[in-house]
Amino acid sequence: MKNIFKKVSLLLLVSFLVISFLSSATYAIENTETKDLKQDISKTKNIEKIYNIGQYKEIGDYLYNYFNNLYKILETGDISNFKQSSSDSNTYIILKDLEYKSNLYKIFHNGIKDISVDQFIIKEVKENTDDIDVIVYVNVSYVFNKNENSSMGALYKVKLKKGNDDSAVIGMDTTSIDIQIVKDTIKAKMSSINNSINGNLEELKIVDDLYSKRNEKLPEEKQKADNAAKLNTSLNIGNVVVNSSSLSTTSVNVSYTASDSRYYGWWFGDHYENYIFKRASLDCTNFASQCIWSGYGGCSGYDISDIGYDSSYYNNSTAQALRARVANNYRQTSQWYGRNYDSPYGDPITNFCSVANLWNYATSNTGNGPKADGYNNNSVYTDLSTPMKQGDILQFYNPDTQTWYHSVIVVTTTDYTVSQYTNVRVAQHESEYYWRPLDELIQYFGGSTCKMRLLRPKSTTFAS
Q: 50-225 sits in which CATH class?
């Protein structure tokens, strides 16, 4: 009997020690990841509050309150107060997308809180016979994962009904990339989609079905992410400067400083304008190329945090100096250049602003200008074999358009393997984000079927 008691006691002791060890190990991994994320967000932004409605006080006050209530959907997930007045497809997609984001953040990041409309700028008002068209830029800050600060910005075209009516908004559209993805999916399901107010019930049914399937997939996607994360720990390599052993001697040899590229993306990610470069009609890759430009020393010698959000920063000395550099093609080439903010011309060369062209150019370039190693082309994101590092450019494929569709820059300073993608944060334009969870984008581009490739710039040469 004593022997049995001793064996049972010994077994219990061993079990206790094993459980304690595993718990400690798990805690160590989780604590390390939390610590790394805290390091990444230790420098917070002082977001400027901008409320610019010009002479349109009545319209401005109404729409400001409208968007304040609209973005509360991110926290509550409730669209019932808006759904009744939304019969057009574009408005309904915006509502369903906010509902979906709320659900995604609850499952992946403990939800969203502390929502605040920080920038509200009326850019244009056009009065028609029966209604009013308003173009307005809205940027909203929020907190997720209890302590991570972020924001999202988008340009909206709102149609208002004339007269005194509580439901004055009768239609709405936006340039947000998230909404464009959904529209392209709908286009693939229908022969066409009318981008004006239409009230097409078939389209609304497709929208409902699309978001219903997306929401149903989220718990499974989160479980996959959690299982993968248990197998790996993060790699903290610090600032990355990529050098090349075979550089041309006929031009200036230039290293790629990933931390400078990352900082440009983080600082200007939530700026609709930075008063250095001119926005492109589709700005995501145009912005990613600007980040690469900064990594090659485009902003060297200047502190870009001197440049704020308000249009008064156009006259800021740093903005003026960097604008002049762009105009003089500093760290640019005839095959890769952006437009300076004052340029009277349209979009820059496609190698600078096209998702596919940037990849093709940078991975095959043998002359002056950006060079990069490409990873995981035409493969699902889980096949990525290299850790994601600050300053890396990620590109996403849209199966509905059968094109490479979107570019973002990695802004987390810790290197993470793809199995830890829920820890990765990116900056982007169209919409404007400086700290967006990568997992959110992966879900938008298909979840487990998402194709994502990585572009890692490296040292090269420039004429100046």
A: alpha beta
CA separation for the pair 421, 442 (Å, rounded)? 9
Range name among 189-193, 207-211, 367-371 with the lowest pLDDT average: 189-193
Q: Which two tokens stand for residue 369?
A: 């200008």
21 burial (CB, 10 Å; 0-12 / 13-18 / 19+) is exposed
pLDDT at 248 over 70: no
The residues spanned by each domain of the chain are 50-225, 232-462
- When pLDDT is averaged across residues 142-150 and rounded to a whole number, the result is 94
What's the CA gap between 19 and 336, in Å, rounded?
57
Closest of 267, 334, 328 to residue 294, by C-alpha: 267
Q: What are the residues whose beta carbons fall under 8 Å from the beta carbon of 393, sequence distance 6 or more?
A: 288, 291, 292, 358, 372, 407, 408, 409, 410, 454, 455, 456, 457
Q: For residue 271, what are its two tokens?
A: 């700026």
* Angle, helices 284-295/355-364, rounded to nearest 10 degrees: 30
What is the residue-averaged pLDDT of the chain?
86
How many angstroms separate the CA atoms of 163 and 138, rounded? 24
Backbone angles phi, psi at 370, to 5 degrees: -60, 140
Residue of 44, 282, 24, 8 lying closest to 141 (CA atoms): 44
Cross-strand partners of 253:
461
Nearest residue to 443 (alpha-carbon basis) of 103, 116, 204: 103
Beta bridge pairs of residue 277: 340
Tallying the residues shown for the chain, one arrives at 464
For residue 280, give Cα distances in angstroms to 92, 99, 135, 166, 405.
27, 29, 17, 36, 15
Closest CA to 165 of 58, 88, 71: 58
Residue 46: count of CB within 10 angstroms of its CB: 6
pLDDT in tens, 340-389: 999 999 999 999 999 999 999 999 999 999 999 999 999 999 999 999 99
On the question of pLDDT at 93 being above 80, the answer is: yes
Distance of alpha carbon 146 from alpha carbon 158, whole angstroms = 33
CA distance to 54, 175, 183, 380, 413, per residue, from 210 (Å) = 39, 20, 11, 21, 35
Residue written as token pair 């490479």: 404
**What's the average model confidence in pLDDT over 397-409?**
97
All residues at 6 or more sequence positions from 108 whose CB lies less than 8 Å from its CB, including other chains: 218, 222, 225, 422, 437, 439, 440
- List all residues 6 or more positions away from 418 whose beta carbon is below 8 Å from its beta carbon: 381, 382, 383, 384, 387, 388
User: What pTM, to 2 d.p., does this model score?
Assistant: 0.87
Contact assessment for residue 121 and residue 52, using Cβ atoms and an 8 Å cutoff: yes
